[in-house]
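Dear all,

This email documents one entry for the complex benchmark we are building for the journal club exercise. For each entry we list the sequence lines for every component of the assembly. Then comes the predicted three-dimensional structure of the complex as a token string, followed by one or two observations. Please use this as the template for your own entries, and keep the labels exactly as they appear.
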Amino acid sequence: NAGVTQTPKFQVLKTGQSMTLQCAQDMNHEYMSWYRQDPGMGLRLIHYSVGAGITDQGEVPNGYNVSRSTTEDFPLRLLSAAPSQTSVYFCASRQGRFDGYTFGSGTRLTVV
Amino acid sequence: QQPVQSPQAVILREGEDAVINCSSSKALYSVHWYRQKHGEAPVFLMILLKGGEQKGHDKISASFNEKKQQSSLYLTASQLSYSGTYFCGTGRLLANTDKLIFGTGTRLQVFP
């Protein structure tokens, strides 16, 4: 099993550009989440999903959109990139609320 | 809403013990513990549920005080491989939600 796959691993964007970070899992997990990690801030929840067609906002949702059309995929869209969105982004999935998360390897995004 | 972890950093010699604490101002249903090594994704260690038993494997164990909304991670006879940043994540039992909120982390360094 591949687990949680994130693409790309690295990305540089110019301010104002848009892009989609991809996340796919092959474990048939219902729950998926996106986190961003900045030095000294820990992991902050952006958006999450409890199943296909169901998404909701986390702690820091502004500037990001998500959709969950299938169980496997949970893409994160940056609408208009800003330097404040420079961060490492992690996608994670778990089967249910009584299980631990499996994290992807992350996407390091730089906005210039 | 973000849980508070203490201490922020710990330095140990191999074989010494450590305790990392996590506290929340909200009523909790679950507490997760993860370890992240530099440049890698967080890795799930264990989950503690309200009303559940104290968890542990090998020389790492944890407890959950539901009344105080606090959890502690115990690392016994530390090994070099225990070095990394430890995060607690807290969850609340709310309908159709998966808001796992993480603390800012505790950096643990183990030296020979």
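Observations: The longest strand of chain A covers residues 42-51. The interface with chain B takes residues 31, 33, 35, 40-45, 48-50, 54, 56, 58-59, 90, 97-106 of chain A (CB under 8 Å).
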